[in-house]
Amino acid sequence: MREFGYQRAYDVSGAVALLDGDGEARFLGGGTNLVDLMKTGVERPALLVDVRELPLDRIEPAGDGGLRIGATVTNSDLAAHPEVRRRYPALAQAVLAGASGQLRNMATVGGNLLQRTRCGYFADVTSACNKRNPGSGCPAITGEHHNHAILGASDHCVATHPSDMGVALAAFDAVVSYETADGPGELPLADFYLPVGETPHLETALPPGALITGVTLPPTPVAADSRYRKVRERASYAFAIGSIAAALDVEDGVVRDVRLAFGAVASRPWRARAAERALLGAPADAENFAAAADAELAHAKPLPHNGYKVTLMRNLVIAVLSELAEEATR
Amino acid sequence: MTTATQGSVGTAHTRIEGRDKVTGAARYAAEIPFAELAHGWLALSTVARGRIRSIDTDAVLRMPGVLTVLHHHNAPRVDSDYVGLLGVPPDPSVALFQHDRVVHMGWPVALVVAETSEQAREAAEALVVTYDQEPHDVAFSAERQAEAYPVDGHAPGVMEKGDLEAQLASSAVVVDAEYTTPEEYHNPMEPHAATALWEGGRLEVVDSNQGTTWVAGELANLFSLDPASVRVRSEHVGGGFGSKGVRSHQVAAVMAATVLQRPVRVVMTRRQMFSLAGYRSPTAQRVRLGADADGRLRALEHQSLNMTSSVHEFVEPSAAASRAMYDADAHHTASRVVRLDVPTPTWMRAPGEAPGSFALESAFDELAERCGIDPIELRLRNEPAVGPVSGLPFSSRNLIACFEEGARRFGWADRDPRPGVRRDGRWLLGTGTAAASFPAGAMPSTAAVTAEADGTFTVGINAADIGTGARTALTLVAADALGVPTDRVRVRIGDSDLGPAMIAGGSTGTRSWAWAVTAAAEELRQSLAPGADIPPEGITVRSNTAEAIGALAQKERHSFGAQFAEVAVDPATGEVRVRRMLGIFAAGRIVNPLTARNQLVGGMIWGISMALHEEAVRDRATGGVYGADLAGYHVAAHADIPHVEADWVDDPDPDDPIGIKGIGEIGIVGAAAAVANAVWHATGVRHRHLPIRPDRVLMAGGDA
User: Fold this and answer.
1) Which residues from B are below 8 Å from A118, CB to CB?
2) Is the whole model's pTM more than 0.80, yes or no?
């Protein structure tokens, strides 16, 4: 593998300065994805700036009653935090549904958001891939795409974002904070990932050289009654073939508030706003849940071998919302 | 010696080397240090078929630490025109760098050798190779039957008895179904790794393999060396499963050590293993069963197709798996191959029987349903008295005992045969069963047993312990044959200088080695006068079992088993989870119950994995495997494996000195069919294509 430099940063401005906007430098969090990609040659950084010692490992109340999660909080600590478990249970469940215990002990919140797709063509440097090598083509569209995107993809890339955590964050309107040499900035998660379009190699709206410093969850009362369900080809240690983060508030049998986001169906965690709109104020029954799913999935453009995901997501919406509705009436 | 402890065989014994392994003291092939060690890295083709046009070595030779680049212009010549220990010519794929042809995606085109492994890797990845690419064909499917032809592998390609069409025509019930199994990989935990060096005029290779006699012989043949001048050692092996014979890494290491005259190590990466370490071919199988209304078979046809490379025939003898199982008036079996631009497949745990039993035992479940007969009762009604095709007697056949004991312990008698009627929340529940068999055999081996002056005994047997517990089993066997406790016996294995012995393969290793050890030990025991002094050099007796094994009568020799599974299926998501599994086996005398259970449970878990997870996707455009790593190729994780229980019935082989048959492979046989049959019982839908993925279950409106 390519020889690379390694520097450890101890404060945020120092980390940003060490990276210095260098396109061949990368921030190193838990390394659970970046180091793998370095081994296979997908990533060939000249410098790693280790950010694990930064003082960003706290989960604290945010000013508006929400929760601020530091960028270097490990996935394990995030899932175990009492406030997360109490107020945003789907987030804790999503994190625990991902990876393995060892990986969650290493992986950070910031790194989780920036992890790369697990598309097999992206991971194989001998293969064409528009995301890794812009303009080289997307073999997945005519090749293996059994676990590729059905929503928001383009003719240039059909890869999915692999995060479970991000799906719950998308459902709860999380906001990403970052730092650059020019000062701090914020991006709602809804705007954090760029549309695929013709530039699948451009994945986030972060300015060059920006370091993620944290994620803020707004106070979202409906999130206290939330659930994450992940379907995968084995019971653990596998990426989703379809997942859902859902929160539901039902009063007198009518949906008063709802949050829905899908995983493993798009290049980013997919907030199902059309489904949410269809449900607000509607009776909380299976028929409406199905109609809401259909409203969202009407935009789906499945490929020849991943059409099952439309059925799967529809079934998941009905199943998980039905469970939440039933629990709400108890 | 009548006062010594008797009866080590049959008692549980932890692994002799267990402490070394868990403390890290046991060193694996790539961990053993050598002075002046250089590191080789294989560069693999990025096209699936064509010719190498150019290799730009100049730039790479100037990179830090690079010592040499071997390729088809400068590599030592090798000879692949011979027949090796297993009675077959080598796969020409191991004759590295002999010509400019590229035979499959990931074909070795060069070896870059450098001072460090990292330097070698960086240089190998920087090496620019250009190709005259040719169109390739990797599209395996049942449609390729027209181009296929039968091949005799370790079993005849075609065996036929009776008039198949006539018997089918007169059958009250006919099952005619097609089954497929995908390309499957047996990547062991420990990747393939070898270090080669010349020392005192001898070629020394430290390797991870399934038989050093075998690998030493192959290397001697390939490099035209006196067999006595080649020594291969392989002390600890982190899994083999059929993949660890002679492979590119040893050949490349020997070439580089010869050219550079210093030790050279070559290790495969996980990704390289998906083109260099072998795999199980996908199979397309068709089973036709014709039966009377009471389930008695009139016709059994089992056709299997697999792919092989363009340079070597390897047949996955899936149809042969039916030959010993059930009798029928007409009995036709044929295993065929089609040649494609793919790496040569190889033996993978239970070659033939693993995929073959999925088809046959699934079809039997379908026949039971059609006849309205309990699946176990159907098997009892078709139990043969002699080999259904061969007419030979069975050495022993205790399949019925396995089903009876298994049914009792699994609670089969309470089973409601109707499919799709049991629920637990969102899960549909079902149970299934299947039979298992695997050939039992022994191959000639030699052993030496020495009575030492201090009262201990040293056994030299060139066995391979690939994680099976062979070293421990042979210690128990030797202790009993010598009539001493196990702590007075030291067993040395994994060194070709110990003399010829069978490989760890075909479920024949322990039996073959134990026979040789017993022969030498018993002779030594008889020759030792009680109380006599032992000279300082000890007293050694050697054995060779060739004659005794050659004198064995022709019989149908097999292990048998009955597999039971309970599954839960969520029809809304397609998820299938196994809830419990039980396997009862009749597999000869069990030497070490502790490691035997481990072997059998391991095989059953692999069967769950085969049923639900394992599948390599070959990309038709590139010709290579998509997702060629253990993130892309799923095997069962801990959470997929519930309570799995394996046990056995008494079944000593009457023709073996110890009564052993062999247990390495039978655990996986029938396991996938038991799971698939349980999925049918849960949902009412037959799944004839493995793996039973969520999308297949989800989208299966009717039969999948």
Assistant:
1) 631-632
2) yes
